[in-house]
From TrEMBL:
The chain crosses the membrane at residues 28-53, 128-149, 161-184, 226-246, 284-306, 326-345. This is ABC transporter permease. The keyword Transmembrane applies. GO terms for cellular component: plasma membrane. The keyword Zinc-finger does not apply. Residues 122-349 form the ABC transmembrane type-1 domain. Belongs to the binding-protein-dependent transport system permease family. It comes from Mesorhizobium zhangyense. GO terms for molecular function: dipeptide transmembrane transporter activity. Signal peptide: none annotated. It comes from the Bacteria. It is found in: Cell membrane.
Length: 361
């Protein structure tokens, strides 16, 4: 009879076996690799969508460069120089290679590299959207929690109406009304633009965020002037964010307040404040972070109308100008940056989801 080694004894002779998949370091590397692959494929899909949409729109990028009165020979020479005579697949691979090296082309509108233009305009959008989401979170979360804890009350009805108005009111209308009332009539806030014209160019750009750069330069007067101009557009964005966050927070809280453990805590005599904020609010933090992340990404990509109304020199205004001038390099570059930011915020939300909820690991 052939000798068969006792593999179980051998495996356990020096202790418990360590499975490959249970090694924390291996799990971390696999998770990181999966994260990188997911982001890479998502970004590649974004590149493909932006590229092919840019090729099917009824805008001739060659005419945008040479003009509609250029001779045929000049038109063909520009078309060859731009590589538009090659098959779409070849053009796409060239486009991907250029993007990966940071080359988004040259803007017809400004005559500068699109990448440099986006570095200049994106901080303005980031500043406005960040203040807007801060307003939305600081007001929307408490409003949603209070509405859920007072379900059916007059305050609950008012908060629900505010949430509905955030979905129903057009952004351009609210922006125009805000300018007419708070700027033109009451003089409570600054008008269009990021600064009063006599302050323009006095603060050297370091981060591109005017509030931070003015403090770095020690220009407190410019700092408060920037807040004066930022208050209204950020508040308009904050209102729409507030409406969405308050509505979702209320929905999450109502679901938690109906759970048995909340009823048990109340029966045991736990104070209502602790029941709401410790027992009911903590479990909704995970989905609430996802809601806030999506709302923030929506503000970054959906500020086109607000920036146009307030003459805000951000990426939304830049994108609008590029569309009007048939500047496809600028349009594709701005769309790509907005999409990349959206992907990044979603991935950060996923990471926070796993950090706060061990069940998702």
């Amino acid at each position: 009879m052939a000798f068969e080694p006792d593999t179980a004894s051998i495996a356990t002779a020096s202790g418990k076996p360590k499975a490959f998949g249970k090694n924390p370091g291996v799990r971390l590397l696999l998770g990181l690799a999966g994260f990188i692959v997911t982001v890479a494929f998502t970004f590649l899909g974004l590149l493909a969508i932006t590229f092919f949409i840019g090729r099917v729109v009824p805008i001739d990028p060659v005419l945008a460069v040479v003009g509609d009165r250029a001779p045929r020979a000049v038109y063909e020479a520009a078309r060859l120089q731009m590589g538009l005579d090659q098959p779409l697949v070849v053009q796409f691979f060239h486009y991907v290679a250029n993007v990966l090296t940071g080359d988004l082309g040259t803007s017809v509108s400004t005559g500068k590299l699109v990448a440099d233009d986006l570095k200049r305009v994106f901080p303005a959008t980031l500043e406005m959207a960040t203040l807007g989401i801060i307003i939305g979170v600081l007001l929307g979360v408490p409003m949603g929690v209070y509405a859920a804890s007072r379900q059916g009350s007059a305050v609950d009805q008012i908060i629900r109406v505010v949430g509905l108005l955030g979905y129903a009111i057009p952004a351009f209308w609210l922006g125009l009304v805000g300018l007419a009332l708070f700027y033109a009539r009451l003089k409570w806030v600054g008008g269009p633009g990021r600064l009063d014209i006599f302050y323009d160019g006095l603060v050297p750009p370091v981060t591109g965020l005017l509030l931070i750069d003015s403090l770095i330069a020690g220009e407190t007067e410019i700092f408060f002037n920037a807040i004066w101009h930022l208050a209204l557009p950020a508040s308009v964005l904050g209102f729409f964010s507030l409406a969405y966050i308050a509505r979702m927070t209320r929905s999450f809280m109502l679901d938690q307040l109906a759970q048995e453990y909340v009823t048990t805590a109340r029966v045991k005599g736990v104070s209502e404040r602790l029941v709401i904020w410790r027992h009911a609010f903590r479990p909704i933090l995970v989905p609430l972070i996802t809601v806030i992340g999506l709302s923030y990404a929506g503000l970054l990509e959906g500020s086109v109308m607000i920036e146009t109304i307030f003459s805000w020199p951000g990426i939304g205004n830049y994108l609008t100008t590029a569309l009007l001038n048939a500047d496809m390099n600028a349009v594709l570059g701005a769309t790509l940056v907005i999409g990349a930011v959206f992907i990044g915020i979603n991935k950060i939300s996923d990471v926070l989801y796993r950090v706060l909820d061990p069940r998702a690991r």
